[in-house]
Amino acid sequence: QGAAAVGAGLSAAQAGITVAAYNSGSPAAAAQVIAFGWIKPDVQAKGAASAFVAASGQQAALAPFFTRFLLNCDQWDGYNSERKNLMAHLKTNAIGNVVAITGDIHSFFAGTVSDDFDAAGGGTPVMVDLVSAGVSSDSFFSYLKSAAGTMGDIGTLVSYPLAIPVTGVGTVNLDVNLLDYTMGKAVPTVDSLLEQLRVQLRGALAAKGVPEAQLDATVAAVQAGLKASTDFSVTLLGLAQQLSGLGNNPWIKHLNTDAQGYTVVTLTPGKLVAQFKQVNKLVGTAAPSNVIARVTTATVTAGAAAVVVS
Fold first, then answer.
1. 19, 20, 126, 271: which has the highest count of C-beta atoms within 10 A?
2. DSSP code of 117?
3. What is the percent of the chain where pLDDT is above 90?
4. Does 133 lie in the same domain as 271?
5. How far is Cα 296 from Cα 173, in angstroms, rounded to an integer?
6. What domain range includes position 188?
């Protein structure tokens, strides 16, 4: 079969993919073989000039996916040479146990900073970076969602709209945060995806007038309905898993770009422990009875440029 395919004008690699698709046993499996073995490499190599992009008839819709965006130059990404110089100074002079604790990006992050992110494997970790969300500021996710929402299908890398009918309440509109998975959050399960949505859902129900005493029970009931829905537990979950599977930014060990909250740091000779405390949203104009929605702990042990998240 392979020889015949080569004889028909295909390259050896193309012939191998074609034979694998033919022998895959089902149209769906064959489509996967062709998509990832033939179409994906061609699009990655040629970008918008790929014949597959032209053949799709969706050149305009796909154009943003071949555009380089500078999302936020007022952070490390905007100061690559300065970062390299600073990390080189720390590394050359054996200055260890360096942890930066910052904010201003309206998100929670925990990860490491390497000497050279352009190097193979992303370089060597030199210090730890911890970032705290703000108590009252809108989230980084909300800003980026608004911008990406004007750019067509590429907005799916950031958010996914959900309209949920709730008995006695009406339709509750949510925007599922996919930005975290695009940026490198761990592959979700249906339960972790539901948990990620919990704070936003609670706030949306409160905004619809659900009394504080009924909020948690209503949230649980809505989550149970979402879990039973294949639109959520199969389609949306599959999309989040695919985005996480891109493997972006492996040095980020924790991120939550849609949060309000604060960070409590405890420093001892042996370790630094940072508790990222995300808060629930207001109930009308009043503080929620349960202020803390979730706590994520980042631990940095003395002598290691690494962070463990729990």
1. 126
2. T
3. 68
4. yes
5. 27
6. 140-243
